[in-house]
Amino acid sequence: MLGLLLLLLASPTAGAAAPAPAAPRLADVSTLIPDAVLDLRYATPRNVTGRPLYPAGARCLLRPEVAARLARAAAALRQQGFRLRLWDCYRPLSVQRALFARESRPGFVADPSHGGSHHNRAAAVDLGLVDRSGADVALPTDFDDFTPRARAGATAGVSPEARAHRDALHRAMVAAGFVPSRTEWWHFSAPEAHGSPLLEIPVAP
Questions:
Q1: Distances in whole angstroms, Cα of residue 68 to Cα of each of 33, 75, 153, 165
Q2: Cα torsion at 118, 123, 126, 132 (round to 10°)?
Q3: Cβ-contact 96, 116 below 8 angstroms
Q4: SS (H, E, C) the chain
Q5: Does residue 186 contact residue 126 with C-beta atoms inside 8 Å?
Q6: Confidence check: pLDDT of 123 > 70
Q7: Neighbours of 94 (CB within 10 A)
Q8: What local confidence, expressed as pLDDT, does residue 6 receive?
Q9: How far is it, in rounded angstroms, from Cα 119 to Cα 154?
Q10: pLDDT at residue 150 is higher than 80
Q11: Residues 156-184 pLDDT 10s
């Protein structure tokens, strides 16, 4: 028995760390929903940090199952005369840290050191609507607006037209299996987030 133990300890693989799991293959949403308007705000200075956080060529990436859910919601909204405007999809953990450093109020940006965001798991999406031509439609707020009007059920200061568009988006996303945020009308998470790891992989090719 002692000889077998010594042989195992001498083996070059003894005590070696298990190989890291391979990064999941993420789906490029633009291939599944080609009429979606890609408006990734963190690839521009038009975000809460005032600087681009994604490189040029950033894509809207999601876990394949989540992307399939989003395609179903897009199909339902297309029948109502709407297209999707995609503001954020998969978000690397390093970008989550930059956002949290800028906006750490509870309920807005998830703490990267305490579970992070479902965006970091490629299982959440931030989005709005445009019309068939790609023109803006009335919505309660712009993306990453941290006022009370950003709440999913807000009525004060939100026009009936904007509420109707917000609610149409909400119904289509919930029907596709997404879970809405109470504090951000544009944010939806997918059940695939549960058990999925936090990711740090490139958003651009």
A1: 9, 11, 26, 22
A2: -170
A3: yes
A4: CHHHHHHHHHCCCCCCCCCCCCCCCCEEHHHHCCCCEECCHHHCCCCCCCCCCCCCCCCCEECHHHHHHHHHHHHHHHCCCEEEEEEECCCCHHHHHHHHHHCCCCCCCCCCCCCCCHHHHCCEEEEEEEECCCCECCCCCCCCCCCHHHCCCCCCCCCHHHHHHHHHHHHHHHHCCCEECCCCCCEEECHHHCCCCCCCCCCCC
A5: yes
A6: yes
A7: 11
A8: 37
A9: 24
A10: yes
A11: 999 999 999 999 999 999 999 999 999 99
CA-CA distance, 75 to 66, in Å (whole number)?
A: 14
What is the residue type of 50?
A: G
pTM, two decimal places? 0.88
Nearest to 95 by CA among 56, 54, 64: 54
> Which position has the token pair 């004060």?
156
pLDDT at 20: 46
> Quick one: tokens of 6?
């010594």
Pairing of strands 124-131, 187-189: antiparallel
* Domains along the chain with CATH numbers: 24-193 (3.30.1380.10)
Contact 118, 124 (CB under 8 A): yes
Q: What is the Cβ-side half-sphere exposure of residue 54, based on CA atoms within 13 angstroms?
A: 27
Query: pLDDT-based confidence at 15, cuts 50/70/90?
Result: very low
CA–CA separation, 12 vs 4, rounded Å? 14
- 113/105 Cα distance (integer angstroms): 15
